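Chain A, query sequence.
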Amino acid sequence: MRRNLFLYLFIFAALIALILYVNGRNYQEAIEKDVISLRAKTQEQEALLDSIADARLDQPLNFTLEQHQEAKNYFEKLGWTSERVQQNVTDQLLELNLTAGGNPLVPFTGQGRGFQVNDTRFVNHKWVLVNFSDNNQWGELLVTYTIVDEENITLETTAAVLNDRYR
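Chain A, predicted structure.
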């Protein structure tokens, strides 16, 4: 009798092990299918995002001097080209960096050498966006430029923003 009891216990344990193995295998196959479908969805979404990014890069910037025909016409009336205006305004902004205490167009007090103009982006025939910094803080300016005569351009700060360093 004891021998039959061990035989029945062995068969019962073998059946439980078989059931656990089959259920574990089915669960693993279901998880693998889910992973495969999620990878496919991720690849589709990445392809969609890439196509959206490419479409945005193909569109020209609306606020550039090169795309602004009215600005080009304005400069032609004055005998200037947009490239010449950009070069002269940028040169003037960079020359103002050489003054003691930083660029006088920046209405903020910088540390050490003062605020210096780093980069410019021309919006139209009257405004230029200027990026400035003093290696600790940075900000932007909206500078209005006016063509006075054949050789002179005046610069005037219209608005200024100093960014918070610890944001």
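The chain has three helices and four strands. Helices lie at 2-58, 69-78, 82-96.
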